Amino acid sequence: MKLYFKPGACSLASHIVLRELGTDFTLESVDTQKQRTESGINFQSINSKGYVPVLDTGETLLTEGAVILQYLAESTELIPEAGSPERFRTQEYLNFIASELHKAFSPFFNDTAPDVQRNQARQAIRRHFDYLDAQLNDGRDFLVDNTFTIADAYLFVVCSWASVPGIDLKEWPFLSALWDRVYSRKSVKDAMKAEGLLE
To answer: What are phi and psi of 2, to 5 degrees?
Structure first.
């Protein structure tokens, strides 16, 4: 398998999961502004949407991070059993992270976004952090069934962007504690080192 990624982008979640699973894979970084991969390929020919992640499974190309995470985790301990309440809860968190929290950060990665849009986005991020912190205040270590899942990997990456809009994640103690737990995992450190995010 090959993962097309951009350092520190949402593709980091897929990268973490690949390392959690011990799967054989290769990496190719993408300059999304120039739409070129590190080997010089026009990225539009790989993903016409123009963004990462993309997973080349050897049989097909998969896009959309939440889908790639579920594909990778299927039949592993990183996603609950199909049909179980815990599986649906995991998917619920994945969708919330993708459609609400991740999306709220978009103005901070767009140089042309007006201040009013960024201020609205900052408020939305804080509301989403409030919600997640409240979910975690029952003493659980992770989002679902007190077990590390793909939802935690995705949440970790998006929460890593908190400083971009000038938000201190430590304002949300339960969410910050989850971030710390995920950060301590070997798969996370290895993925971040491979992407040049850690020495």
So the answer is: -130, 135
Q: Are strands 2-5 and 26-31 parallel, antiparallel or unpaired?
A: parallel
pLDDT for residue 135 is more than 90: yes
**Helix, strand, coil proportions of the chain in percent (round to 5)?**
50, 10, 40
What's the pLDDT score for residue 199?
A: 86
What CATH number does the domain containing 14 carry?
Answer: 3.40.30.10
Distance (Å, whole) CA 152 – CA 182:
7
pLDDT tens track for 53-97? 999 999 999 999 999 999 999 999 999 999 999 999 999 999 999
- Domain carrying residue 109: 85-185
Contact in structure between 67 and 125 (CB atoms under 8 Å): no
Q: How many domains does the chain have?
A: 2
Chain centre to alpha carbon of residue 125: 15
Helix (H, G, I), strand (E, B) or coil at 76: coil
Distance (Å, whole) CA 139 – CA 118: 33
Decide: helix, strand or coil at residue 33.
Answer: coil
Task: Tell me the pLDDT of the chain averaged across its residues.
Answer: 97
User: Using omega within 30 degrees of 0 as the cis cutoff, is the peptide bond preceding 80 cis?
Assistant: no
